[in-house]
């Protein structure tokens, strides 16, 4: 498609950034400028070659400026199709407007400032959206600029190519309709919030990722609007390389898990599964114990702590392992200096409290989507049912509750071995629960961690007694599991035969 070289520009701006540069360029191109209100006054300080909208239309603005650009001469000039509408335009004595430079009243910023309801309503722009929508619809012949950040590219295109290309006009049009979707949603959200104290959230594209889960896949990061907290998608990225798709998925899994603990805790995640979790009196000790669960898998993993990261722990991380991402609620200055020695490590600051912008989990399936609520249930300790002859000791109960929390974040079939609030073996994602138990046992043996006296959590019930026999042969003292199998009596008998205490939760935590 051909270039256009606009002859008449309509300019009406709330954000007047870089206006001086744009106006001086348009003057050089001999573009006729029409403007409104405060923008007109700003342009007059630069040049006298500007016409006020009311002079252009012959219609004085009214209602304190509410009605000034809503005039046929404006919209006919913008919407006119050059192939079919020129005759009617000429008959009425109207002229073409082939550039519209307009941005909108800052509604979201006004609302965020704590303004009154009446002030918010007054900041709902009417003329601006109407003009840019008209121009965006007619992008074949009209250039519409709704973002001051696009002035530079506009000027470069015009100078270097002799006009504004079809491709760039189409891109600018798309930005207008994206802007309008967000603008209208912000207003709808505000009014809904005022009337029902409920929130609506919408996506904004925040990044194009280098690729998806694999290099042949494309990926974007979409972030919800109106977030109150620093979540994974809008975390403060303090240093490091660009986050990859897998980094974001793993970081989310790590942060989701570490938030489940009240005391200082550390979670190390690899391929969306915890490979080491520990709770201790300090973040340093929690990291040390989590790392010792499975140093091999921790290599290249994601580390999350639910406190401020200190220098000593940062030094230990740098000394011990290669890490992709470190997440914390904050970082001591010395800790950031230490992490900066590994410049590629992504360092993210995230709030413990997170937004919940949509109700639950969304999964794509062929021909549709599945939506389910979040798995937020935490079984109260008082609701645990001991089904064996031996009761677990208080220490075992503490470890069982810890193991149960971790199991919820491990891919099914999940088996978690724990001792003294440290994972000592994790078996994840196996088709057989017994194999998951064997993997957990193998991991503990590889790292020289003592299984005897440890506890075991299973995310779902044991369909046969073989899982219990496997746990007994490894030295497991207590088990926590949902129960509910048709062979529960057989499973309980196996636990009694091996002097294992077993608690039923009556709740399972599948994670696929």
From TrEMBL:
GO cellular component: cytosol
Keywords linked to the UniProt accession: Hydrolase, Multifunctional enzyme, Purine biosynthesis, Transferase
Domain of life: Bacteria
EC number(s) from the headed UniProt entry: 2.1.2.3, 3.5.4.10
PROSITE patterns: MGS (PS51855)
InterPro entries (alphabetical): AICAR_Tfase_dup_dom_sf, Cytidine_deaminase-like, MGS-like_dom, MGS-like_dom_sf, PurH-like
Pathway named in the protein's UniProt entry: Purine metabolism; IMP biosynthesis via de novo pathway; IMP from 5-formamido-1-(5-phospho-D-ribosyl)imidazole-4-carboxamide: step 1/1; Purine metabolism; IMP biosynthesis via de novo pathway; 5-formamido-1-(5-phospho-D-ribosyl)imidazole-4-carboxamide from 5-amino-1-(5-phospho-D-ribosyl)imidazole-4-carboxamide (10-formyl THF route): step 1/1
Catalytic activity: (6R)-10-formyltetrahydrofolate + 5-amino-1-(5-phospho-beta-D-ribosyl)imidazole-4-carboxamide = 5-formamido-1-(5-phospho-D-ribosyl)imidazole-4-carboxamide + (6S)-5,6,7,8-tetrahydrofolate; IMP + H2O = 5-formamido-1-(5-phospho-D-ribosyl)imidazole-4-carboxamide
NCBIfam families documented for this protein: PRK00881.1, purH
UniProt-recorded name of the protein: Bifunctional purine biosynthesis protein PurH
């Amino acid at each position: 498609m051909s270039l256009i070289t606009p002859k008449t520009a309509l300019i009406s701006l709330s954000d007047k950034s870089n206006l001086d540069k744009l106006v001086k360029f348009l003057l050089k191109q001999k573009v006729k400028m029409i403007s409104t209100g405060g923008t007109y006054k700003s342009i007059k300080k630069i040049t006298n070659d500007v016409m006020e909208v009311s002079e252009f239309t012959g219609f004085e603005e009214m209602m304190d400026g509410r009605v000034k650009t809503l005039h046929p001469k404006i919209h006919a000039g913008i919407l006119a199709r050059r192939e079919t509408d020129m005759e009617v335009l000429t008959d009425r004595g109207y002229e073409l407007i082939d550039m519209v430079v307009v941005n909108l009243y800052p509604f979201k910023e006004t609302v965020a400032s704590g303004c009154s309801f009446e002030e918010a309503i007054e900041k709902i722009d009417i003329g601006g959206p109407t003009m840019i929508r008209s121009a965006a619809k007619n992008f074949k012949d009209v250039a519409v600029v709704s973002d001051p950040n696009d002035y530079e590219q506009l000027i470069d295109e015009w100078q270097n190519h002799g006009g504004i290309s079809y491709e760039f006009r189409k891109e600018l049009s798309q930005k207008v309709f994206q802007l309008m979707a967000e603008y209208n949603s912000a207003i709808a959200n505000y009014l809904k919030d005022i009337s029902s104290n409920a929130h609506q959230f919408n996506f904004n594209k925040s990044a194009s990722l280098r690729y998806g889960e694999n290099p042949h896949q494309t990926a974007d990061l979409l972030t919800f609007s109106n977030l109150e907290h620093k979540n994974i998608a809008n975390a403060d990225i303090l240093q490091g390389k660009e986050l990859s798709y897998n980094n974001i998925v793993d970081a989310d899994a790590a942060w989701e898990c570490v938030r489940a603990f009240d005391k200082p805790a550390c979670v190390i995640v690899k391929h969306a599964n915890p490979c080491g979790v520990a709770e201790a009196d300090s973040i340093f000790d929690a990291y040390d114990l989590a790392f010792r669960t499975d140093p091999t898998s921790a290599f290249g993993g994601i580390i999350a702590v639910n406190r401020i990261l200190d220098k000593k722990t940062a030094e230990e991380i740098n000394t011990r392992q290669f890490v992709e991402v470190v997440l914390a609620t904050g970082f001591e200055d010395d800790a950031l200096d230490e992490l900066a020695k590994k410049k590629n490590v992504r360092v993210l600051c995230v709030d413990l409290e997170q937004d919940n912008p949509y109700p639950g989990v969304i999964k794509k399936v062929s021909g549709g989507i599945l939506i389910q609520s979040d798995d937020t249930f935490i079984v109260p300790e008082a609701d645990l049912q001991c089904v064996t002859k031996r009761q677990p000791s208080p220490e075992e109960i503490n470890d069982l509750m810890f193991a149960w929390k971790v199991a919820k974040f491990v891919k099914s079939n999940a088996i978690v071995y724990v001792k003294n609030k440290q994972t000592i073996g994790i078996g994840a994602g196996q088709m057989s629960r017994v194999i998951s138990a064997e993997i957990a046992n193998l991991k503990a043996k590889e790292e020289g961690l003592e299984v005897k006296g440890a506890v075991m959590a299973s995310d779902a019930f044991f369909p046969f007694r073989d899982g219990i026999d496997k746990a007994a042969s490894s030295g497991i003292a207590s088990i926590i599991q949902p129960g509910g199998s048709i062979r529960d009596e057989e499973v309980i008998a196996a636990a009694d035969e091996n002097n294992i205490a077993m608690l039923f939760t009556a709740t399972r935590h599948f994670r696929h």
